[in-house]
Every structure is written in C-alpha cells, then in structure tokens.
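Example record

The entry below shows one chain as it appears in the dataset: sequence first, then structure tokens.
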Amino acid sequence: MSSPIATALLSYGMSGEIFHAPFLSIHPGFQLNKVVERKNKKINLRYPKVNSVNAIDDVLQDPSIELVVVNTPNETHYRFTKEVLNAGKHAVVEKPFTVTSAEAEDLIALAKRKNKILTVFQSRRFDGDFKTLQQVVKDDLLGKIVAFEAHYDRFRNYIEPHTWKEEAKPGTGILYNLGSHMLDQALVLFGKPDEVDARIGIQRPGGAVDDFYDIRLSYNDLLVIVKSSYLVREQGPRYILHGMQGSFVKYGIDPQEQDLKDGKLPDGTGWGKEDEQWWGKINSTIQGVHVERKVETQRGNYCEFYDNLHHAIRDQQALAIQPEEAKEVIRLIEVCYESNKLKRAIGF
C-alpha cells in the first residue's frame, strides 16, 4: 500500500471516539496525527502518539495534514468543511452532510475547484443487514418489489442533558440524526421518489427537537416507509420487504456500533459478523420453488469506507459515497420538513 494519509479529526466526541479513530488507527493507509480537543483531553488515553491540539487552525495551518474529518456539530459542517477545502485538504464530513442542500452544492463546487476529495460518512451503507438487503433485491429473490418498510427506533424517554443534539438548532433532531441514514439507504435501493409525505414531531414532554418521524416515499409502483422514534421500547422488524413472489423480514441491527462502544477494535476476523439469531427470514417462490429459510447476514465493515477513501485519494478511484448523493439526502430532508408543514404529499 502507498504512503499513509496524514489525517486529523476536528473533534473527539462520540463520532471521533467510536466511529473514526478506531478505523483510522488500524488502517495501514492512514495515520491519525492530530485531534482537536478544546476541553476534555481524552485522545491520548487510547492513542498516545496522536497530537491533541486546541484549535482548528492548528490543523488547517499544518501542511503535513492531507485529510480532515469534519465531525463537529451539524450546523458547523458547512463552515468548517469550507475552511478545510480552502486550506487545500481533502474532507470527510460526518453525516448529515450539511443543514441545507444549497450549502452542500456550494461545498461540492468548491471541492471541484480545489481538486480535492469530498465525501460523507454515510456509515450505514456498510451495515451487514443493509448489504444483505441489497443482495436480496439484486438477486431478485422476491420478484418485483412493491413495498419496503424500515425502522430505526430507540427507547430514550428522557431529554439527554448537556448535548447540542437536544437543542433547537439548525440541523438537530431525529430526522437529521437517524433519518440521514435511512433516507440514504432508501435512495440507494430505489432512487429518487416521485412524492414525499412526511410527519415529523416531538413526542417526549419537554423536548426541543423532533424525536419521531413517519415518512412515505411514493414511486410509480412502489411504496417506501421509513419510521423512527425515541419511544419504542419493544423493537419490531428493522426491515420489511415485499415483492410479487414473497417477503423478507429482518430484526436486529448491525453489531459494529455496539462493539465499538464496548471498546473493541475492528481488526479481528469476526468483526461485523452478526449472530444467527438475528438473521433475516425469506418466504418466497424462487425459480418455481417455494423457499422459506433464514438468510445469513453479510459481514458489516465500516472500514470499507476508509479502504475506498484511500484508493480515491492515492489511486484516483471512484468514491463509494459521492457528495452529490449526500446532497440528495439533505434535499430529501428539506422536502420532508416542507411536507410536514403543509400536512400533505409533495413532489420531489
């Protein structure tokens, strides 16, 4: 592999600690050199060789840094990514890409002018359950798909203190937080919908940001439903897929996030492998034969994001996640809010 890419993180909160530093630390194609930590200095407890700095300028003014991960609060993504690109560095932006699609368009144009790589960490594309779902569709195991329903639910019946995610600021709320994953998956699977009908709101007493949504994406001959709530204690299926020949139902969620929270490093042979109890079930007619069985979940691996990114920077290979795709997610979020405001379906 060619020389490691000197990389910096703009923060070391949950995103930096759980989703980026572990992969950057074990990937031979990257070298995590700097992390911005304004208050709590934690990076050296786990990564003693990384340089903790106090300000973003300490990263931007360092000519050795090639790549910067913008994993700051959502409303700052546009400003900081613009500064990163203007400093002549490649940029990874934590999802959601930006708050508005206009901001996303501006960053895409800037990256092209600067001839720099710009991508977005849509990590749930690399979940094993989603990869399995894609395979079921690709292999035509259900016939023509007529309905798809996805859930991303949690049980958090309180307002989490001391976090910007619970504050009424641009880009906060469950739709930007979890919806940016779910809508991205829907667009990857089925492309742009014809109409969007969304209901978004606050269910928890005292809440300042939206904490549930029910979104219907209408296609010519397909209905896609994506739902999320912080008040779901008993989990239902994560994915439900119906076709002309049968159905696929999947419970449970990819194990990588919990393993990362438990302090495991993504360097073992069993990484991303889901326990058999969570495998999905297919009930369909395939080539004239009735099939009813479990479908083994493919191995998830967020490291694939960084594999691709290294090849994009060093070998000019195509990005797995194009910024234009991430922009469409933001545009769809904007349309969802407009639909909710009007309380009716609108075109996309």
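Notes for this example: The CA atoms of residues 60 and 83 lie 8 Å apart. The chain is about 30% helix and 25% strand.
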